[in-house]
Design brief:
The protein is of the alpha/beta class and 345 residues long. It has twelve helices and twelve strands. Helix 1 packs antiparallel against helix 8, helix 5 runs parallel beside helix 6 and helix 10 packs parallel to helix 12. It binds pyridoxal-5'-phosphate.
Length: 345
Amino acid sequence: MTPYGAPQAPLPVALNVNENTHPVPQDVADDIMDSIALALRDVNRYPDREFTALREGFADYLGHGLTREQIWAANGSNEVLQHVLQAFAGPGRTAFGFAPTYSMYPLLTRATGATWVAGTRAPDYSVDAADAAAQVADVAPDVVFLCAPNNPTGTPLGLEVIEAVYDATAGVVVVDEAYFEFAPREERSALTLLPGRERLVVSRTMSKAFAFAGARVGYLAADPTVIDALRLVRLPYHLSALTQAAASAALRHAPTMLRMVDEIVAQRDRISATVEALGYTPHETWTNFVLFGGVADPATTWQALYDRGVLIRDVGIPSHLRVTAGTEEETTAFLDALASIESTS
Ligand SMILES: *Cc1c(COP(=O)(O)O)cnc(C)c1O
């Protein structure tokens, strides 16, 4: 097996792991510092094991009438997903997702001793409700991952697919909305499907839209009985007092933290339009990144961009590369570098 390993190279333009490349605004950073300083005074004591204030913060942020009993959080949504698998997967059980999808699902699944089963998508990476339900019914998985929109392809997923998959399984259905904030404004979240669906879990992260990747904070919303199951598998005090303080402070500034989302979406759409003009084939995306095909030799193009100071991602899909939308300057640097390379197939 190979560990998760996106290269961490100190290049001037790093657009490879879908971070928000805009720094946290100074006034918010100052407030977060004050909150951490306050938390430090009590750091001789264990933190609030139930991270009550933070769960309230997430419930308020998500809306939809959610309360803190329906919220869970951990050190990145990767840990949140790991908790779900530790509680509901394990030896003799199966987790399922439609490939290509987020590379951590199989790793986290296998680390609990469970089996990973990959389903299939249409050639444009979409998934339709009837086909999805049939595939899930066939495998009868204990946990289903629906990445909405999907990483690494950017593909949106209709709520009708989630409903159909939920009805086709007796297992836990996890909708990973890591990129939800980049979807069109009027789109409904899977959070709207939670009432009456006690096996549905909707996960989110502060790592992408929220410009908080380095703080490691992810969260989910689900039925309170699911939350109780997650309490069984988490390590005691898994969220440090400093993490709780920093995340709660950042949430108080949610509109400011999220203020760059529209700008990032504009750069994403500019990437799609420009790579298409250069002869590549960008896929539809509701995220902060673009997967584009028509790359004759992805490894060579990746290296040529690297040599020009631009780091993007080879996600292992033949003829494709993935790039994160950066600031206007970073995006320009990427597009100029790509234009200087002769590499369409
Ligand atoms: C980035 C990402 C995550 C989460 O990352 P954390 O930093 O661990 O919160 C989860 N799911 C998908 C699909 C992602 O792309």
